Amino acid sequence: MADPTPVELTGNISSTATTTVSFTAQAAGVVLILSVASDDYRTTSGSGRPESTSWTFLDGQEGNLGHYVWYKISVGSETSVQYTIGSATRSAYTLIALDNMDASPLGVTAKNATAVTSLTSPQNIASVTPTAGSRWCVVGSVGTTGNGTQGPYTWGGSYTKLSERYNTAGYRPGTTVATRTLDGGSSVTGTIAFTAGGATDQMMSIISAWKVAVTGSNFSFPFRRNPSRGLIMRGRR
Prior knowledge:
The chain is an all-beta fold and 237 residues long. It has one domain (7-213). It contains no helices and 17 strands. A hairpin with a 3-residue loop joins β16 (224-226) and β17.
């Protein structure tokens, strides 16, 4: 099967405690991945989890901000997902879709939180080691927060940026997502650089590997008779 074609379905800045992320329904089997960064993250029971059912919490971390990733394998009818933070304040979110993925897509995941006060040099994101012998789509998600504008973001390590959403006023969480497709067997990492209009309190990264679906190379064909040359068998190839 061909490599996935990652796309951003939607992304925005929200200023409400509960945010409904609306998007166009995708084909069944498409992997939906939601990333959120929020300064006032929720600390009560169910911390960081979306209210919409059947979404799976992939990874998350909390410090000066909360940065979370959830996913769902589409059944072909989803058009929204909700998440709740601590109060009616700003958060940044992005939702992407991966086609051509394995039905049980998650291979491995890692996370890394880095507190930064200067954005003059690139920062390392987390690393992940996909299993050898398979093709993988690696998804990197970064959350930032601070008193200054948190973007634009520049990705290193052969990633293609899909999304960036960041606040331009007040206390300003931001998030960016990028992907790359590769064969497994070795550690995959990357770097991120970005320009801020003021101090950045913290950057967090979550990186995950998703197995690309493969189709078998063996095909069976029925017997057929050639009237002039006798029985011909179409076998496996």
